[in-house]
């Protein structure tokens, strides 16, 4: 069965964007031009553009045209990825700013998550930037007994995920996602306005089924999304 023509047009536009031939801000051909290119009706071309606007790939500007949206950062719910790798895969630059590093006695929540009832934990707070725009505030706790050299690392060059994968390879993880109203400090670091929500991912990672790290990862909800895909046999 042949593919619907509006899907062919949508696939063509999507391909131009994915191949980085049409970069963010690029004005795509008009619906009339697309309809002529694919020997389709203007209504069919409009349906293709509507689909990509719905997918957030395109944005209409009334009386001006349709433009390629800035790529919206995303990661898979079913895959633990280093944020540095995610950003580089999108063809963008990644930078980190270390806001704090400390050793402390864990509160009850952290102690239970890390089974750290009789040991200290390390805590780091790091701001990750994509093309100089804040994309994630990372607040991470690590069992000091299991990873004794954690705070000695230069986290302006190596991410905490990279280091932890080296010394305590990931075996499994527990993840929770919620939308929250950002605190003043989150608004400040992530450059959020009063109407923007915050996406919070709480993630406990394990190595050989031993809890190693508890991370609270905060993202601007208008710039980040989490996806998942399940296959059913």
Overall mean pLDDT = 87
| Beta-strand proportion | 25-35%
State the separation between the terminal residues, measured CA to CA.
24 Å
Give the low-confidence spans. Answer: 228-233
Q: Which value, in Å, is the CA radius of gyration?
A: 22 Å
The major pleated sheet works out as: 6 strands, antiparallel
Output the helix-strand order: HHHEEEHEHEEHEHEEE
According to CATH, what is the class of the largest domain?
Alpha Beta
Percent helix: 25-40%
Number of strands: 10
Stated plainly, the CATH topology of the largest domain is called: Chorismate lyase
Q: How would you characterize the overall build of this protein?
A:
α1 packs across α3 and α2 packs across α3. The two termini are 24 Å apart. The strands form three sheets. This protein has a six-stranded antiparallel β-sheet. It has a two-stranded antiparallel ribbon with strand order 1-2. It is elongated, with a radius of gyration of 22 Å. It has 233 residues and is an alpha+beta fold. The chain is 27% helix and 33% strand. It has two domains: 64 residues, Winged helix-like DNA-binding domain superfamily/Winged helix DNA-binding domain (Arc Repressor Mutant, subunit A), CATH 1.10.10; 155 residues, Chorismate lyase-like (Chorismate lyase). The longest helix has 14 residues.
């Amino acid at each position: 069965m042949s593919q619907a023509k509006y899907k062919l047009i949508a696939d063509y536009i999507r391909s131009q964007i994915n191949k980085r031939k049409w970069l963010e801000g690029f004005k795509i051909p008009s619906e009339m031009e697309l309809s002529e290119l694919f020997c389709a009706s203007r209504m069919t071309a409009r349906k293709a553009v509507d689909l990509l606007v719905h997918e957030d790939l395109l944005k209409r500007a009334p009386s001006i045209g349709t433009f390629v949206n800035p790529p919206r950062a995303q990661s898979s719910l079913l895959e633990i990825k280093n944020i540095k790798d995610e950003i580089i895969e999108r063809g963008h630059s990644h930078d980190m700013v270390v806001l704090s590093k400390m050793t402390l006695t864990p509160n009850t929540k952290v102690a239970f998550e890390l089974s750290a009832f009789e040991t200290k934990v390390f805590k780091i707070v790091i701001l990750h930037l994509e093309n100089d725009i804040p994309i994630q505030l990372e607040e991470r706790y690590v069992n000091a007994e299991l990873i004794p050299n954690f705070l000695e690392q230069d986290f302006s060059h190596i991410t905490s995920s990279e280091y932890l994968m080296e010394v305590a390879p990931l075996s499994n993880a527990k993840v929770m996602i919620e939308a929250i109203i950002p605190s003043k400090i989150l608004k400040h670091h992530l450059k959020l306005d009063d109407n923007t929500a915050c996406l919070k991912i709480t993630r406990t990672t394990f190595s050989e089924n031993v809890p190693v790290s508890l991370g609270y990862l905060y993202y601007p909800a208008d710039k980040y999304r989490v996806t998942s895909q399940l296959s059913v046999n």
